[in-house]
Amino acid sequence: MRQMQELSAEARQKTGKGPAYQTRRKGHIPAIVYGGTDAPENVSVDAHTLGLHVGAGGFLTTLFMLEVGGKKQRVIPRQVQLDPVTDRPVHVDFMRLAPGAKVKLDIPVRFKGHENSPGLKRGGVLNIVRHEIEMLLDADHIPDSLEGDLSGLDIHGTLHFNDFTLPPGAKTTIREQNFTVASIVAPTSVIEEQKAAAAAAAAAAAAPVVEEGAAPAEGAAATPAAGAAPAAGAAAKAPEKK
After folding, report:
1. How many CB atoms lie within 10 A of CB 33?
2. Is it the case that residue 28 has pLDDT exceeding 50?
3. What's the burial of 115, exposed, middle or buried (CB within 10 Å: 0-12/13-18/19+)?
4. Which of 102, 158, 164 shows the shortest CA–CA distance to 132?
5. Is residue 93 over pLDDT 80?
């Protein structure tokens, strides 16, 4: 399970583009904290610290104990806006999480057992259908990822949602029943060989069959076999006078 991180913030009195720009110039990122029974709070967090958390990956599925003016509250990031040029955070939305709260998150999918998959050993390719799965989870049991085991899977083998172990109280929001998450497909070389073999078989099946000794088609001249006697009634050529 993902560990909760500590994060400090400062109260932010003014809002709007101008004050937000001034906040960023001071090395802080504007943010808002909402949800629960308390009113939304405008805060700012240290830009360097926030950048480290965002760069570490999994930011939107990480719980934070956010401290603002000596008051701590459990939150989770719901949205982070990035600068289109520098790709650095420029604004963050945090949502409060009360005890026993549930949250809807996209949980990444990871795989193990590659070395024990007959299909991969034969040159098969892992085809990931869903890199993330939207889940409804208890805030106290948010996993880093959902892990699927490829052990024993041959070419054309599949991993379905029911093959994954879920944290307590978790369920997917996807309506499709036991959907496919990943499969092992044949390598391109094998697929091309199969296509070529199928094409050759189809061509052989479509070719006309000529039976040995069959009569020539109507109107076609018969060709005598080598060494055969001339047909009865055929005129013999007179010997040439010298």
Report:
1. 21
2. yes
3. exposed
4. 164
5. yes
pLDDT at 23: 93
Per-residue pLDDT reduced to its tens digit, 178-197: 999 999 999 865 556 667 77
Rg (CA), the chain: 37
- Position 105 scores a pLDDT of 94
* H-helix or E-strand spanning residue 22: helix 17-25
Scored b (16 or more CB within 10 A) or e, 117-133 reads bebbeeebebeeebeeb
What whole-number distance in Å separates Cα of residue 47 and Cα of residue 183?
41
**In this structure, which amino acid lies at residue 177?**
Q
Torsion sign (Cα): 54, 59, 62, 63: positive
What is the distance between the alpha carbons of residues 164 and 113, in angstroms, rounded to a whole number?
A: 13
Residue 6 · residue 64 · CB < 8 Å: yes
